[in-house]
Design brief:
heterotrimer; A mainly alpha; B mainly alpha; C alpha+beta; A: mainly alpha; MetI-like fold; 11 helices; about 65% helix; C: alpha+beta; MetI-like (chain B); transport (chain B); membrane (chain B); transmembrane helix (chain B); BPD_transp_1_N (chain B)
């Protein structure tokens, strides 16, 4: 019988305070609801069918998944489905409300807002998924090493995460961008740098608890190498919380990029990004007939964030309902 | 317990040192500390003066010490744009940010706790579901969308003056603060509500609550006295951390509402590449955050008997 | 399973629907708002000028004038240089001479001035018995003090360069002297100046607020108390210190005797914060909070409609120009033909229609129309849109299709629209491959100055002093390159490295010509060379400024001063 995985709550990696550190975090809707009514406690890996079954039960999560899929399709097909080139300006036709020719109206440079918003979807998906994968890979690697090896290496890695986590939300991202300059990829790196520590901690936590489990001992006793143990036994079982966190972090990364763009930092101003569009719409906030300029990008952000949040929530509930 | 506290404090000091070092590295060494924007460059004389002040002509380690010394004696030099003493600029902005933070915290505590308690007590009823939906939106909709929406929708005569007034016209301070405070409070209030609800649900099921009920205590007393007090602990820690973040300056919200606190100053300084202003604000933000997180952790350990006895 | 296939089908359906939403090829974004989009009948001439520079003098003291600005960089004359700061400094100080709103330079604190024959020695006779706001007397020493304050090395002033003709300037800037040796203030009523580089136009420079007198209490340049609350000798004084990001209050100086006293009791200058500050100025005026406002470009038509009938509208060509700076010594722009081809390929009128709502006029000269005697409209013959001729010239000049051209502008100034339009036109009409980029202003400056600089840059120039020479010498003379070495950065205001000895000669002669009319003729010839023949820079738009104000309340407010600000010293309440 295996013991349910702990969440690594040791006093000096005090999850309550630090897990709440980054104000980016859109904390999981429904998190406080997680009461385990199924009481199954089954191991998650390899039970994809079970996961899917549980997932489907959460209606919101299903809706979220549909929306996410839709966004991905939009992102991939963007070059073909946007009626206009999203970068093309038409200076004779600026700030126009929605019409036949321009379903979402035009922005401050006369660009078609519908095309621009869809381009924004593509941008958001690229940045969101890139940040997710980067932070996941780094976090998994370092967290596994820290948890498995322990000792000085563990301390070192944990100290580094503490230091990175000491920078509140946007300030850390701004600092990195200041140093590396403006550009989408610099923003991605900045956000990934800020996201990997929590992923690493989660991985470390699950690795720690699994390290002592019986089947690992069994594997060791038959002489399996460390690498083999980590990759074949620990990783697949420990990955769940980290995966869930990284997935829920996609929406956060999208909002973070939009925030930076809104402030005019990091994201080049001529790129049609939702945050930039909203910033350009500020002088129009109280002007008649120009509300489309901020409403549509705002809706885009909200839809994206909520969709990913619901999916992450659903993933959490379905992979292990007891997991917190 | 004492051991825990010392360990935690030492840990915090280490983090602060490392973080300030990184800031120093980033802004003085890796970037160009005198990059400026606007229609002019930083004159060589000003560069010289700042080099003096920050000891940039000294060996690397001495530079870092000088920088630390300057930070902790609040000697920040003059800014690039207007040649003003940066300390003066910050002194004006800190109280503004503090006021905003405190008011936001008050609002979110009141709303969050109330909603959380109501939801827990009437679990699965319409009220509960309604609150769950609202809090989902509150958490899921990003701060700056909320801010923009509020500014677009609600600015008017007395909430957020949409039309500028001559600066000599007395504008009550709360008019400027109410919308940004609300914007900041919404996310936290939603989170607090959920925390409170979950925590309270757990507590309401606990043995000692059942005992209290069995003893014949009124429901109100049960909730008010026992359940509430014990379930509020995670909320306290969350609020503490939140305060730490807010004190560092709410960049987005202050920018949206043109509220002249630290966050607003920082954003403008970044756009102007005004390094002397950027450095102290970033250091301050990190500092307040680490200090408050540490205090919160110590407080949590104190309140949570499980940890205390560790 | 059932749900899975539903999902898959839904996804497929969405994909198909998305594809069906579009035409196979993307449409081109060329819609207009329906009216006014048709063919332009004639080139736009900008909004007609509307202003009233007559000054009536039958006002009575009283009233508080309110307006909004953005936070100035400085209001202390030792370094004030941009229009927000100058609004305050111009009214706090009275200098030797004063430039009127029509560009004429008239006596102020100096009753008269003269120079020797080669314009190397100047003598200014000062009014006596005038005082600073704190009671201290204004003498020639006050001027010397102020000038040394600006030119001192430690001050790191942004405007010290205006003094560069004066003997002793280099030593002050190097820090080897703490006195301007070329300024003699031994006679309190007479200021004598010796110039190391003689110029017959030196007196014009002294109109700039950098040349203001200052009281003893001013101290060194960096003096926060004085920087925030300068004590001057002008018709207004500070009523309390500068409240950063909040506002500045001025009040009338009742003991002013260097000229006519002001009528206004007070001026309330509110500092507006945020990207929409200009919009806020207008909102403030429309709501009765302000008495004067600048107008954002997209509000020009509606504001004009509202205020012109009430006589509350100002539209004036001012002393400035928007142009494209060119790297003159590097291909592909290293021949006059190539530059003219580029210029002819730009359709200025339709940019003005689309971006500026028809409110400005295309430039056909470099020296702006404000200089009525020197103005030569049409001297830039390549400023007229002619795509066929442009193509022809381009071929001749080797500016063939596919040639790369760098085009850079500075962000944050609202220039995105028109520069993007220029880019599109160059690509369309000449088939060039335009490397278009927007960077921070001082990055752009660096790029312009670099020895590898090539292509064109967006720039603008406004008059520092009221002479056409100010549009020629600092931008096109060889000395203004700032270096002889083609591999070193060009640190002057002529980073394009245009160098024409004929032009230099004309400029030199003009600087040595005492008679103004003669000078102007020489300047005109010089402009004929650098623009007409060589097109060393590509003029784009004349600078035209618009204001609206509350005419029911205020008289003498229907004009802008030389720095495009309201003439606070003559405005009075009706």
């Amino acid at each position: 019988m295996t013991t349910p995985p702990q969440s690594g709550r040791e006093p000096d990696t005090h999850v309550p305070a630090e897990a709440l550190m980054t104000r980016f975090e859109a904390p999981e809707p429904g998190a406080a609801d997680a009461t385990d009514t199924t009481g199954k406690g089954k191991k998650a890996s390899g039970q994809l069918r079970d996961i899917w079954r549980r997932y489907k039960r959460n209606k919101l999560a299903v809706v979220g998944l549909v929306v996410v899929a839709f966004l991905m399709i939009l992102a991939i097909l963007q070059p073909w489905i946007t009626p206009y080139d999203p970068m093309e300006q038409n200076l004779l036709n600026t700030r126009k409300p929605p019409s036949d020719g321009h379903w979402f109206g035009t922005d401050v440079l006369g660009r078609d807002m519908f095309s621009a918003i869809i381009y924004g979807v593509r941008l958001a998906m690229i940045v969101g998924w890139s940040v997710m994968f980067l932070s996941l890979i780094v976090g998994l690697a370092l967290g596994a090493v820290a948890g498995f090896r322990g000792g000085a290496l563990d301390s070192l890695i944990m100290r580094v995460t503490d230091i990175v986590l000491a920078f509140p939300a946007l300030i850390g991202a701004i600092l990195v961008v200041q140093i590396f300059g403006n550009g989408i990829w610099q923003v991605v790196i900045a956000l990934a740098i800020l996201s990997w520590p929590t992923a690493a901690r989660l991985m470390r936590g699950s690795t720690l608890s699994l390290r002592e489990s019986e089947y690992v001992e069994a594997a060791r006793s038959i002489g399996a190498s460390d690498t083999r143990i980590v990759t074949r036994h620990i990783l697949p079982n420990a990955i769940a919380p980290t995966l869930i966190y990284s997935f829920s972090h996609i929406g956060v990364a999208v909002v973070a990029m939009a925030s930076l763009a809104f402030l005019g930092i990091g994201v080049p101003p001529d790129i049609p990004e939702w945050g930039t569009m909203i910033a350009n719409a500020v002088p129009s906030l109280n002007v008649e007939g120009e509300s489309h300029m901020w409403v549509f990008p705002s809706l885009a952000i909200v839809v994206t964030t909520l969709a990913f949040a619901f999916v992450a929530d659903g993933l959490r509930d379905s992979i292990d309902p007891k997991l917190r | 317990m004492a051991k825990f506290i010392t360990r935690r404090l030492a840990h915090a000091v280490l983090v602060i040192i490392a973080a300030t070092f990184l800031i120093y590295l980033g802004l003085f060494v890796l970037g160009d500390p005198f990059a400026s924007s606007g229609e002019k460059t930083v004159p060589p004389e000003i560069q010289e003066a700042l080099r003096e002040k920050f000891g940039m002509n000294q060996p690397f380690f001495m530079q870092y010490l000088t920088y630390l010394q300057n930070m902790f004696t609040f000697d920040f030099g003059i800014d690039f744009e207007q040649r003003r003493d940066v300390g003066d600029m910050l002194a004006a902005a800190v109280p503004a940010t503090a006021r905003l933070a405190v008011i936001a915290i008050l609002i979110e505590i009141v709303i969050g706790l109330t909603a959380g308690v109501i939801a827990a007590v009437s679990q699965y009823t319409f009220r509960d579901v309604f609150i769950t939906i609202i809090t989902t939106l509150g958490i899921g909709i990003p701060v700056f969308v909320i801010g923009i929406g509020l500014r677009a929708g609600l600015s008017g005569e007395w909430i957020f003056p949409a039309v500028p007034r001559s600066f000599t016209v007395e504008t009550p301070w709360w008019q400027e603060i109410i919308l940004p405070a609300f914007t900041l409070a919404i996310l936290d209030a939603a989170f607090i509500a959920r925390l409170m609800r979950g925590s309270m649900l757990e507590v309401l099921r606990a043995d000692y609550v059942r005992t209290a009920r069995a003893k014949g205590l009124s429901e109100r007393k049960v909730i008010g006295k026992h359940a509430f007090r014990n379930s509020v602990i995670p909320v306290v820690t969350y609020t503490g951390v939140s305060l730490g973040v807010l004190l560092g300056g709410a960049l987005i919200t202050e920018t949206i509402f043109e509220y002249q606190g630290l966050g607003f100053l920082l954003v403008r300084a970044i756009q102007q590449h005004n390094n002397p202003v950027i450095v102290p604000i970033v250091v301050f933000a990190v500092l307040t955050f680490v200090v408050l997180s540490t205090l919160v952790d110590i407080l949590y350990a104190y309140l949570d008997p499980r940890i205390r006895l560790h | 399973m059932r749900n899975k296939s539903v999902l898959l089908r839904a996804a497929a359906g969405l994909a198909v629907a998305s594809l069906a939403l579009t035409a196979c090829s993307q449409q081109s974004n060329t819609g207009t708002d329906g009216d006014g989009g048709g063919g332009n009948e004639e080139p736009s001439a900008g909004y007609p000028e509307v202003f009233n520079d007559e000054v009536t003098e039958d006002g009575t003291p009283g009233g508080t004038f309110r307006l909004g600005i953005v936070e100035p960089a400085a209001i202390d004359p030792y370094t004030a240089y941009e229009s927000e700061g100058l609004l305050v400094t111009d009214n706090l100080f009275t200098g030797l001479v004063h430039t009127t709103s029509s560009g004429e330079t008239v006596p102020a604190l100096a009753t008269e001035w003269s120079s020797n024959d080669d314009c190397s020695e100047w003598t200014f006779n000062l009014q006596t018995g005038t005082k600073f706001h704190n009671g201290e007397e204004v003498t020639s020493a006050s001027f010397k003090r102020g000038w040394e304050r600006v030119t001192a090395k430690a001050s790191a002033s942004d405007v010290a360069y205006h003094f560069d003709q004066i003997e002793g300037y280099d030593e002050m800037q190097a820090g080897t002297a703490n006195q301007l040796s070329g300024v003699d203030a031994s006679d309190p009523a007479v200021l004598k100046v010796s110039l190391a580089s003689p110029s017959c136009e030196f007196y014009l420079r002294t109109a700039h607020t950098a040349f203001s007198p200052v009281p003893e209490v001013a101290g060194p340049g960096q003096n926060e108390a004085y920087n925030n609350q300068p004590i001057g000798n002008g018709p207004f004084m500070m009523d309390g210190p500068w409240q950063h990001d909040q506002g500045i209050k001025l009040k009338r100086f009742d003991d002013y005797n260097a000229g006519p006293k002001a009528y206004l009791d007070a001026v309330e200058i509110t500092i507006l914060v945020g990207d929409d500050a200009q919009q806020k100025e207008l909102d403030g005026l429309n709501n009765g909070q302000f008495d004067w406002a600048r107008v954002p470009p997209n509000q020009l038509a509606v504001t004009r409609e509202k205020y012109e009938p009430q006589d509350g509208w100002i539209s004036k060509k001012t002393f400035g120009i928007d142009y494209l700076q060119v790297a003159v010594t590097k291909p592909p722009t290293d021949s006059a033909k190539a530059r003219k081809a580029i210029s002819m390929a730009i359709d200025r009128p339709s940019i003005i229609e689309g971006v500026f709502d028809g409110s400005r006029a295309p430039a056909t000269a470099f020296v702006p129309g404000g200089f009525q005697d020197a103005y030569q409209p049409g001297v830039c013959d390549a400023c007229e849109y002619n795509p066929e001729e442009a193509k022809k010239l381009a071929e001749e000049a080797g500016l063939t299709e596919g040639t790369e051209l760098n085009f850079q502008f500075n962000t944050g100034g609202g220039h995105e629209q028109w520069t993007a339009a220029v880019k599109q036109q160059l690509e369309k009409n000449l088939g060039l491959k335009v490397n278009y980029s927007g960077v921070e202003f001082n990055d752009m400056l660096e790029n312009q100055q670099s020895p590898d600089s090539a292509g064109i840059y967006r720039l603008s120039w406004g008059a520092d002093y009221a002479t056409p020479g100010n549009f020629l010498q600092p931008l096109f003379s060889t000395a203004a390159i700032g270096t002889d070495d083609p591999n070193a950065p060009a640190t002057g205001d002529n980073p394009g490295r245009y160098s024409n000895p004929e032009f230099d000669d004309l400029i030199k002669r003009a600087a040595a010509t005492k008679d103004e009319a003669e000078r102007i003729k020489l300047y005109q010839q010089a402009e004929q060379i650098c623009i007409g023949e060589d097109l060393a820079a590509i003029p784009m738009f004349e600078r035209q400024q618009f204001r609206a104000f509350d005419s029911s309340k205020w008289a003498n407010a229907g004009d802008m001063d030389f720095h495009e600000n309201p003439k606070l010293d003559v405005i009075y309440q009706k």
